[in-house]
Specification:
Elements lengths: L3 H6 L11 H13 L7 H10 L2 H17 L4 H15 L10 H13 L4 H8 L10 H10 L1 H4 L1 H11 L9 H12 L7 H12 L3
């Protein structure tokens, strides 16, 4: 509490923190998630809004780490902590959206497990194509979410994949799972585009 003003104002000096910048952005995120006494929602919203794209990237990493660390309580943690953070604290303007932020938010939506559809819907406005989507495709394939939520899995893949070279070999497995779970999606333009993309690149 004694350091509240200085703690929050530090976000405006993010570039000057050097090697400690990442730690600050993540600590700020954890503090906001924990609803610290003496701090109001708008306090954290102002601080997050002052962060540059690099700081928001680290904040998004912090959200992923917090959700993954909640173990079997992930769905509750998403519902009770991260949803509140996302809607009330995370900046509203998407002008600073980057592939790095999108990568973390894609990972965040997958980590939400049974809340994957609502998580993806929440972060979708910030999603842009990712330079190297292999890890996200791997996580999606391993999670089994393509079978459980084929429409949303297809939406995620279509959003993050454009025409990057060297597609993930697991993309085809994801598409097969989507088609098996909801055969009508094979006629979807997004599904056809991704299938052709994988075929053209020999995935």
């Amino acid at each position: 509490i004694a350091l509240k003003a200085q703690f929050l104002d530090t976000s405006a000096y993010y570039a000057e923190l050097g090697e400690h910048a990442q730690q600050y952005a993540r600590f700020l995120t954890y503090a906001a998630l924990e609803q610290r006494d003496g701090y109001a929602t708008q306090d954290f919203r102002r601080a997050l809004t002052a962060l540059p794209a690099g700081g928001l990237t680290e904040s998004a990493h912090g959200l992923v780490q917090a959700l993954e660390a909640s173990g079997e309580q992930r769905e509750d943690y998403w519902q009770n902590r991260i949803t509140r953070f996302w809607h009330n604290i995370w900046p509203k303007s998407t002008l600073v959206a980057t592939p790095e932020i999108a990568g973390s938010l894609a990972r965040l939506s997958i980590a939400a497990r049974g809340k994957f559809p609502s998580a993806l819907e929440s972060v979708l406005a910030w999603m842009v194509p990712i330079d190297h989507p292999h890890f996200i495709v791997h996580l999606l394939q391993q999670s089994g979410l393509a079978e459980r939520f084929p429409e949303h899995a297809l939406r995620l893949l279509d959003t993050i994949i454009v025409d990057q070279p060297w597609p993930s070999s697991e993309l085809v497995k994801c598409l097969e799972a989507i088609a098996q779970a909801q055969p009508s999606l094979e006629m979807d333009g997004r599904f056809r585009r991704l299938t052709e993309y994988a075929r053209r690149h020999g995935a």
